[in-house]
Amino acid sequence: MVLVLALGDLHVPHRAPDLPAKFKSMLVPGKIQHIICTGNLCIKEVHDYLKTLCPDLHITRGEYDEETRYPETKTLTIGQFKLGLCHGHQVIPWGDLDSLAMLQRQLDVDILVTGHTHQFTAYKHEGGVVINPGSATGAYSSITYDVNPSFVLMDIDGLRVVVYVYELIDGEVKVDKIDFKKTTTVNLVFL
Amino acid sequence: MMIPDGIEDEEKWLAEGIAGIQHNAFYMHRALDANNLREVLKYSAQMLSELRTSKLSPHKYYELYMRAFDELRKLEMFFKDESRHGVSIVDLYELVQHAGNILPRLYLLCTVGSVYIKSKEAPAKDVLKDLVEMCLGVQHPIRGLFLRCYLAQISRDKLPDIGSEYKGDSDTVVDAVDFVLQNFIEMNKLWVRLKHQGPGRSREKLEKERSELRDLVGKNLHVLSQIEGVDLEMYKDTVLPRILEQVFPDEYHLQTLETLLGACPLLQPTVDIKTVLSQLMDRLSNYAASSTDVLPEFLRVEAFAKLSSAIGRVIEAQVEMPIVGAITLYVSLLTFTLRVHPDRLDYVDQVLGACVKKLSGKPKLEDSKAKKQVVALLSAPLEKYKDIVMALTLSNYPRVMDHLDNETNKVMAMVIIQSILKNTSCISTADQVEVLFELIKGLVKDLDGTDVEELDEEDFKEEQNSVARLIHMLYNDDPEEMLKIICAAKKNIMNGGPKRLPFTVPPLILSALGLIRRLQGREGDLTGEEVPATPKNIFQILNQAIEALTTVPSPELALRLYLECAEAANDCDLEPVAYEFFTQAFVLYEEEITDSKSQVTAIHLIIGTLQRMNVFGVENRDTLTHKATGYSAKLLKKPDQCRAVYACSHLFWVDDLDGIKDGERVLLCLKRALRIANAAQQMINITRGSSGPVTLFVEILNKYLYFFEKGNPQVTSAAIQALIELITTETKSDSTAPDAVSDPFFASTLRYIQFQKQKGGAMSEKYDSIKV
């Protein structure tokens, strides 16, 4: 059981003062093995905070990030899964599944984690799964109206990944989960 | 049994008492003349018995006491002269203890004791100790008080002080202090108990009497201050704790406060009175915090008023006191006020006002300790009230801050911001915003005398980011008020200078965009009147604000913000406004964004935003898309050109709108992208001698598939087939090395096609003619 925190588009301090208090109290150091962040933190203080939660931190560059040296895309292997990470402003049309699927094929990953739209989504398509953890602070988006703060926790266990999405709705944290399974390690087709 | 308030009775009893004293004194005098010790003792004891009465008020008792006191002087002279009575002082000390009743016995003992000490036959400290303890035998408040008063009076000049003739080897200042303290302590205890004692009489009378006796008790403190050996150390470590301990043990009342405060002005200036008062108030604060039952008592004794005026007097009197001392006092008073009277904002403001007065007319604070204390003073209300709005109503708050130097001003401003963020306070009116920005002005603009060179970059960033975060705490649901808030914030921010604007402008813009979204569709009031809060008006304000970023200059940031505004204008159906924002963005791109990497990102943002626009008419849209594709093709690196151009293909095909599905222009973009990819491939051939990766071709293939599936008639299966062949050939060619990126990419693309072919239905049919 490997826990991976996926979050992004915090937009601190341009669009939000901080993570919601209820999220902060849930995110405790030492419980998570990896953090993957889609980008748009935007300042070093957020980077440092995430680092305290887990030292294995992966970030891709969002268009407002203060740090310009984050990579445009990143891939990593966790257990039996290959994960890809990209902020998403580079993939046009923004939020378009087919275009994202193309990126997924290009990165050759089972799970693509991407952001920019501030809208939580988890799509399964021919090539794999695309997950958007939304905006962890519920920041304003020109693309999505009524953004609720959200983040994703993936539990990777063998060939199975359970995706937990945490959303702050009217002051309460709601949790939902989705299951994904790989058939074999070689044949990257999802059921 | 309740005895009615009979003044006539008291006068009668006093008269009787005085008569009794005179009567016995007469006989005592005769015995003195005759040097008859036995008779002297007998009549003096009888005389002193008059002091055993319980019938008199302290005021009257005092008169009686004074008569006895005069007589005891004569007695003392008699005791002193051994030749007259023939008994050694040691024996005399023993002898008087045989007196029948305790009160006379003790008065006599004290008198003898005085002589004993003078004789130096025993160490002064031993005798004093003995006496002060013996007096414990009288627990009646009035009688005990006066007895101890007598003891204090006769021992005054016999204290083993430094330079005193009574200082022996073993006698130290400590002993003197111990004695006086103990006497004081006991007197204090008795005085407190006066409240419950005595015949029934009116409350006011009782208070008056206690107040009179208070001075009596307080005299001990005066004596303490006269003891030359009492230095600051001793005062702080020995004297003060014992006094304070006495004043506030659990069972005692607040009324002892009066005693102490009354005595304070009597103390010498070398005594660290501010420490005394500070510790006193701190103790009181803790006491108040310990239980809510205690609070009414504080109100009853008007503790705040008393402390406040006591502090005022002390500060006035001690002109030499350094400023840090005065401020420390105010800090303690404020802490006290916040604990005991948290609802009395006027008290809080009063304390701040007193501090302002003290700081007025002087140059800005330089002493670092004093500065720290001012920060503590200003932080206290924030911590207590948590809601910043309370602190914003304190009129003296900004005035105190004005007296801080720039550095400390900023420190305090950060404290204020941290408080707001921590408590997630909401500042919801434009007026409050103004006051707040006045308080934090040190962060928001360069104050006079700030040396810009000295700014530490990390610190500066932290400060500005804090201000940025703060902007999100300014909020009101009502759009009109919210607009006023935004305008107030903008006004303050715009004076910040080029270094601050990149931090403070974005949050302002985004906050305003949130307001616009709430107002979407609003042209004016329903009545047809012009209201200020319409999207159009707000966009004008935003335009100004983003323009200010050109002074920094921050073209990339400005471009992003223009695009955000363009999208918002699109949602509000304001075509000219959206067009204007796009124009601004393009101008920045053309003139200011010169770095290749930045250009790539910028053009993608422009394309991405433009792709989503549905407000433009044909002409406007054409102009903008033309520009976008033009710039895409002019990027420096070929692969970047290629990718930007095929991204532009999406400008001509938008799923939602039937109007924008221009298959031809899509194909034009894709073909152009192909040409660029080819050129890129050739270049690599020439410069490196081998074929470059075919990734670009695979990307373009994927785009072909995209539009093929969407039903673009211009994208034929033949074209796709040709592209597949091309890539296959390229990949298998001898001069191409296997590529970790393009090979799996191509493979998964082919697999995708296969998947679609096997899907069934319309999709299968489409893909039927494509062979993989």
Automatic annotation (TrEMBL), chain A:
Q: Where is the Calcineurin-like phosphoesterase domain?
A: 4-157
- Which ranges of the sequence are coiled-coil? none
Origin superkingdom: Eukaryota
Q: Which GO terms describe its cellular component?
A: cytoplasmic vesicle; cytosol; retromer complex
Q: Which UniProt keywords apply?
A: Protein transport, Transport
- Known InterPro entries for this protein? Calcineurin-like_PHP_lpxH, Phosphodiesterase_MJ0936/Vps29, Vps29
Report the record's Gene Ontology biological process terms: protein transport; retrograde transport, endosome to Golgi
Pfam families linked: Metallophos_2 (PF12850)
Q: Which family does it belong to?
A: Belongs to the VPS29 family.
Family annotation (PANTHER family): VACUOLAR SORTING PROTEIN VPS29 (PTHR11124)
Q: What is this protein called?
A: Vacuolar protein sorting-associated protein 29
